Amino acid sequence: MAETKREIERKYEATEKTTVPDLVGTGGVAAVRDEGVMDLDAVYYDTEDLRLAADALTLRRRTGGADEGWHLKFPVSSGIRDEIRAPLSETLPASLDRLLRSRLRGAAVVPVVRLRSRRDVRHLLDLDGRPLAELSVDTVHADRLTGTGQAAWTEIEVELADGADETLLDAVEERLRKADIRPSAAASKLARALEETGASLPAREDGGGAPGTAGHAVLAYVREQVDAIVAFDPAVRRDLPDAVHQMRVACRRLRSSFKSYRKVLDRGVTDRVGEELKWLAGELGAARDEEVLTARLNARLDELPNTLRLGPVRARLRARGARRAEDARTRALAALDSPRHLALLETLDALLADPPLRKAAAHDAPEVLAHAVRKDFDRLAGRVERALALDPGHERDLALHAARKAAKRTRYAADAARPTLGKPAKRLAKRVKAVQSLLGEHQDSVVARTALREIAVQAHAAGETAFTWGLLYGREEAAALAGERELPALWKRAAAPELRAALSH
Question: How many other C-beta atoms are found inside a 10 Å radius of the C-beta of residue 314?
Answer without folding.
Answer: 12
